[in-house]
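INTERNAL AUDIT FORM
Audit reference: QA-55
Scope: verify that the stored structure record matches its stored sequence.
Auditor: D.O.
Record contents follow.
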Amino acid sequence: MIELFRTFQPQPDSLSAVKELLSAVCGIQSPVILRTPQGKPYLDGNALFFSVAHSGALFAVAVSDRPVGLDAERRTHKRYPALTRRLTEEERREDLLKLWTAKEAYVKYADSTLARELPSLVYERGALLKGGLRLPVSLNHAEREGYVYAVCSGSPLHVRFRSFDGTPL
């Protein structure tokens, strides 16, 4: 199970907001958040994993007992010609926001960087490929309240949306 908490309240300090969430809703006392060399935040001394996404007014956090990557983007009519030129012919047929959120969620899941992954990462028919081979990850997409969400994990897991106080949505 992946719990996806979201709020539209401004969060000037996202790590403090994550600590409050983990403490209040997940019951973790005084959570300590560290960063990997690539900058991915993680919980010190705890088996829970989390990933953070910001887009417009949205602030979201995915929490799981397995590694997880989350991205979310606001659905707009904006065009991205510089990005579109870099896509494969097959990718140009895909929903651009689903494609982009899937790639970003994977980068976060893999604790990598966009610069390292984007040149070789391809999104086709709902799957991520590298070197022509399907990556062994599970992608969950959802579209709610004008935002496209992508959650990446190592195995298929159900995603449950909640508000920041833990109330199911």
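Auditor finding: record pair retrieved intact. Residues 69 and 110 are 8 Å apart (CA to CA).
Action required: none
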